[in-house]
Amino acid sequence: ETGVTQSPTHLIKTRGQQVTLRCSSQSGHNTVSWYQQALGQGPQFIFQYYREEENGRGNFPPRFSGLQFPNYSSELNVNALELDDSALYLCASSEIADYEQYFGPGTRLTVT
Amino acid sequence: QKEVEQNSGPLSVPEGAIASLNCTYSDRGSQSFFWYRQYSGKSPELIMFIYSNGDKEDGRFTAQLNKASQYVSLLIRDSQPSDSATYLCAVNIDQTGANNLFFGTGTRLTVIP
Fold it and tell me: Residue B63 pLDDT > 70, yes or no?
């Protein structure tokens, strides 16, 4: 157990809808990164948050957005859902000075 | 060329044998290298990280890094059926100003009792 929690565990949405996923970081960690893992693929970096600001972004469109709160927890929002957004969404927490990242259990999103 | 490449396998080894997992990466500026284990339906679990050339041992696991060849490997000694999982190689590539990881597609390992 890493101490990183995510909610919900599973989610089913319809194309065009919006979704919010939540993550609580491990105690002592001030940085949260979000990844998308499609079936049979490795995780892909979406973005990272540090001190409540986006601290880097991968190759994802602006309809993927996020927030970080003063307690270091974070949200991932996805607007205008597409079928290809169906994936396991992973949150990872770390210290900004460290490279090791620890993943939460993930949220399985299915878009129909 | 992908940033991180792994043989997707599957790799099958008998119980008690050494499993050898390999990974190559494209960015010579990469500084940090990680191995994650992912059981089916679960999230990745960090099992090893290595920053310097050479070997790093932790129990039955040994990570090997060769920056000149842009190659990192994971050896699992005395393989157990519980080691059966997908092993993801990840590399820190600071292209975006963030500490983000690039992952390979993973190698599926099966340890046969």
Answer: yes
Q: Which residues contact B14 (CB under 8 A, 6 or more apart)?
A: B79, B111, B112
Asked if A99 and B31 come within 8 Å (Cβ–Cβ), the reply is yes
Task: State how far residue B17 is from chain A, nearest Cα, in angstroms.
Answer: 26
Distance from CA of A10 to the nearest CA of B (A): 12
Distance of CA B7 to the CA centre of its chain: 11
- Of all helices (H) and strands (E), which one includes residue A101? none
The partner residue sitting opposite B98, judged by closest CB among A48, A90, A100, is A48
Reported as a single tens digit per residue, the pLDDT across A2-48 is 799 999 999 999 999 999 999 999 888 899 999 999 999 999 999 99
Query: B77 pairs with which residues across the strands?
Result: none
Distance from C-alpha of B112 to C-alpha of B67, rounded to nearest angstrom:
33
**Judging by DSSP bridges, how do beta strands A5-7 and A53-57 pair with one another?**
unpaired
Q: Shortest CA distance to A106 belongs to which of A93, A88, A92?
A: A88
Longest CA span, chain B: 45
Q: Is A42 on the interface with B (CB under 8 A)?
A: yes
